[in-house]
Amino acid sequence: MYDKSVNFSLWCDFLERDFLSGEFLTLIENGTINGVTSNPSIFKNAILSSDAYDESKKSSKAKTPKELYENLATADIRLAAQGLLKNYVNNDDGFVSIEVDPNFANKSGDTYKEGKRLYSGIGMPNVMIKVPATKPGFEAMKNLMSKGVNINATLIFSPEQTKNCLKAFKEGASLFEKNFPKANFPKAVISIFVSRFDRALDSKMAEVGLPTAKVGIYNAMKCYNLIKDARLYFVKPLFASTGVKGDNLPKDYYVSELLFKNSINTAPLETIKEFIKTEHEVKKPLSTEKIDEFFGKMKEHEIDIEKIYKKLLDDGLVQFINAFDEILAALKKD
């Protein structure tokens, strides 16, 4: 854990086969990171850009592009889980996430079946199944957790999504406890996306005289407060999409500004390297009342945050679906 005094974890938002056998293990050993996340975009860049997968592609007996993708991706996830197993055993997070086929985002039953299959197939206790936070996704989260599957709820943009995740986890955990009273309790994270708000809104915020690079931070704080107030000990807030585009902000801005007690930040490798160069003060989130004042000022200038929530979720789903489909198309050609 990066900072045990406040239970703050730093996870790496990057996976690639050569990285897993080298620098990844060093970062774990040094106590820099204690978890890792992946998504279809990350796997797309890894599988299609690195020659580390060439031999596995050639020797695979997969019958379809999706089978081949899963063979490659789950092998990486298993390697990462093995590298993090000591952290997991010591109750120091130690999780690695793999996302279900994003084309199932609006299909609860398919998400549940694939999530359960992936979790069982990888065969490691410290794997999290990543499920998009859609209405069918909430149902799948509940059902997966009821079977003891660790969950990473992804593409969280709104407080309402956060509430629905908490409800799903609470119901799923209750069912799990009833059916498996002596088993180890599953864990969950709620992945609150941050930087995409500011990339979408900064020009408008500046135009009306409101502070820039703040909407993502304020929204993340509001979701964090909801999770903290829910007091579900097996659920943690995770701040995602914390890389910075351009040079107008420090590279580690979204990590240092969200260094909160009992939280996780998953960041790109270059962001992590920048963050660990210097010491950082632990921050405290603003009260929900102060946060609502900020959003009230946005509303006065006709910036509709509800529309932004929907657009960012829709765009995020499309981005992951496109990346996933591009992987399959490329593997079909191979």
CATH superfamily: Aldolase class I
Oligomer: single chain
Report the helical percentage.
Answer: 40-55%
- Measured by DSSP, the beta-strand proportion falls in 5-15%
Largest sheet: 8 strands, parallel
Using DSSP, what is the number of strands? Answer: 8
Count of folded domains: 1
From the 3D structure, determine the CATH topology.
Answer: TIM Barrel
Low-confidence stretches: none
What's the level 1 CATH class?
A: Alpha Beta
Order of helices and strands: EHHEHHHEHEHEHEHHEHEHHH
Distance between the termini: 40 Å
Give an overview of the whole structure.
- It catalyses: D-sedoheptulose 7-phosphate + D-glyceraldehyde 3-phosphate = D-erythrose 4-phosphate + beta-D-fructose 6-phosphate.
- The structure is a single chain.
- The protein has an 8-stranded parallel sheet.
- It has helices at 17-20, 23-29, 40-49, 54-59, 65-89, 108-122, 135-146, 159-179, 195-207, 215-230, 253-256, 269-275, 288-300, 305-333, and strands at 8-12, 35-36, 95-99, 127-132, 150-156, 188-193, 235-240, 263-267.
- The chain has 334 residues and is α/β, with parallel strands linked by helices.
- It starts with 7 loop residues before the first strand and ends with a helix.
- It has one domain: Aldolase class I (TIM Barrel, Alpha-Beta Barrel), CATH 3.20.20.
- The protein contains 14 helices and 8 strands.
- The model has no long low-confidence stretch (mean pLDDT 95).
- Strand 4 (127-132), helix 7 and strand 5 form a beta-alpha-beta unit.
